[in-house]
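[09:14] KT: can someone run the structure on this one? pasting the chain below
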Amino acid sequence: MLIILTPPPLLPLMAKVKSCYLIWITFYQILPKIYKYSLGQKVDTYFIEIMEAISIATFLSREEKHPWVRLAIRKIDTLKILLMVLWETKSLDDKKYISLSLQIDEIGRMLGGWNGQLIKQNSPTKIGEK
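[09:31] RB: done, structure tokens below
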């Protein structure tokens, strides 16, 4: 009897982060040693922390999601800068940097949309209502 395991479906945002992280892992493995265990490790940690924040926000009530989404946005912004440093130090070539940057920009837009939606949903609907 053959059992085929299929992973559970992910939210589009989490699927995008996972996809980008899988690309990063291949680049991380070939980073120069001088950056691999410092800046490269930090980038890797940020990816994991972003996935964690999104995962936590996914299972919280609407009112509790916002801080976690904002945290993921801050980490994405920092991740962009760290990758830029790796690119400027020639640790990532143009093609690798562009492939990661495009996906990270899209993740940032998705998080921004989620953040905007949460702000609208959590704002009082009538003047004076809280």
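[09:33] KT: thanks! The chain has one domain: 32-122.
[09:34] RB: yep, looked fine to me
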